[in-house]
Write a structure and sequence with these properties.
There is one protein chain. The chain is of the alpha+beta class. It has a domain of about 120 residues: Alpha-D-Glucose-1,6-Bisphosphate, Chain A, domain 4 (2-Layer Sandwich), CATH 3.30.530. It has a seven-stranded antiparallel β-sheet with strand order 1-7-6-5-4-3-2. Belongs to the AHA1 family. Pfam families: AHSA1 (PF08327). This is Activator of HSP90 ATPase.
Length: about 170
């Protein structure tokens, strides 16, 4: 029998940035900032809608290596500058939730919580994500894709690092 900590599929990432917490938070909260760094390395992000507020929705298109993906963030709770909670999902051009464009059974929705804490000018970002109302097969897929998702977020967070360094000159 699995223990409580490992019984659900989840993704946990911890990343440190040499930037103040307020600046890291603003990189998520500002349309102009978000457009500069979000997405896998080498992809092109097009924001269709950016409504960073509780109840708001961000809808975007990612072009990467000839593949087009659409996605949504539905913001649930925002506590400036400490945390952002949102539901993410793949979507279509109209903003409707769709299955993953990849050839596997990925959860339709994923609950994400990002927390930010600052110590001595260094901000620690903790991302916790888990499937919402997923089938056992989708939970298994999510668990099996942990390494791949970590790699994707690492590329995205490297871009955030570059963005933050540019701002701080």
């Amino acid at each position: 029998m699995e223990n409580q900590a490992t019984s659900k599929s989840s993704l946990q990432i911890v990343r440190r940035f040499n930037a103040p917490q307020s600046l890291v938070f603003k990189a998520f909260a500002s349309q102009e900032a978000f457009a500069e760094w979000w997405g896998p390395s080498g992809s092109q992000l097009t924001l269709i809608n950016f409504d960073f507020r509780e109840g708001g929705v961000t809808h975007y298109r990612l072009d990467s290596g000839g593949m087009v993906m659409w996605a949504l963030f539905r913001y649930r709770e925002i506590r400036q500058p400490d945390s952002i909670t949102f539901i993410s999902a793949f979507a279509d051009a109209g903003g409707n939730i769709r299955t993953s464009p990849f050839p596997f059974d990925f959860p339709l929705e994923v609950h994400n919580n990002i927390t930010l804490t600052e110590t001595g000018g260094v901000t620690t970002l903790k991302l916790y994500a888990e499937p919402v109302d997923a089938t056992p097969e989708q939970e298994k897929t999510f668990r099996e894709l942990n390494a791949s998702m970590n790699q994707g977020y690492e590329g995205t967070f490297k871009q955030l690092d570059t963005y933050l360094l540019k701002l701080q000159g």
